[in-house]
Amino acid sequence: MFSTIRSMALGTVFAMLVAPTVHAQVKDRAARAEQTASKVRTEAPADSRTAPPEPPRMKSLFNGKNLNGWNGDPRLWSVRDGAIRGETTPEKPARGNTFLILQDVILKDFDLRLSFRCSDANNSGIQYRSRHITEGNPRNDWVVRGYQHEIRNSETLPSVSGFIYDEGGKRGRICLVGERAVWDADARKKVLEHIIDQENFKDLFKVDEWNEVVIRAEGNRIRHYLNGRLILDFTDAPGLAMERGIMALQLHAGAPMWVEFKNIRINEVE
Asked: 19 with 148, same domain?
């Protein structure tokens, strides 16, 4: 009996001596865990809706002086103040949609960056992973079909800069600004999420001014960024996706218009 009481007393004393140490260790572990979590939060990647940093070793696609390396209707395309300028007038209309085609470059997976501005009268576009159409009696010598990043001087959704249009194809507006969407093999589109609304786009787009574009194509996933902000995230069906092709800049047929492009550069061209 005495032995049992003595053992209980010794156990109580031991617990009292050890408890502060255990408590201190728990607090220390908790503090270290919080420090680690804080570090992870600090070092976490930027918001996925923000354009990624520009990759190193970007290749310039336009020398700022002339149209060397490009091919288009010489009546309509020129260089002005360091920018490529496409312009149609009543005297010099476009004979159907016409393009300034980048020569000897085939795009596959890439990061393309440039600046644009345009007039209100009509629209333009940036073609990528596209085809130069020479067969079947095209309306001019510079017809292109494929993925198009729409260019417009408008801030009212959905007819704004940045949506993907199937130029010369059957799918029309493949993915609208503000959509995270996928297409399946049966050519059915599913919108998974809305990533920008009218109010935010109006704050983002600069009417009558230069706007910055980033286009990232990785496999069958394509993302468009405008002025540093993700505006579209699109995944095409494997059987429908255009995996590689040329780049071109558009002048749309119809009302007289002008469009300008500058600082055109790319990474990972194949």
From this structure: no
Separation CA 87–CA 93 (nearest Å): 9
Q: Report if residue 234 sits inside a domain.
A: yes
Q: pLDDT tens for residues 24-49? A: 444 454 444 344 333 333 333 446 89
**261 contacts 91 by C-beta, under 8 angstroms:** no
Residues 188 and 261 in one domain: yes
The residue length of the chain stands at 270
Per the listing, tokens 């085609």 go with: 101
For the chain, what is the radius of gyration of the CA atoms? 28
CATH number at residue 256: 2.60.120.560
Does the model's pTM come out above 0.90? no
Distances (CA, A) of 16 to 12, 23, 111, 235: 6, 11, 64, 63
Residue 6 shares a structural domain with residue 34: yes
Tell me: the pLDDT tens digits for 64-76? Answer: 999 999 999 999 9
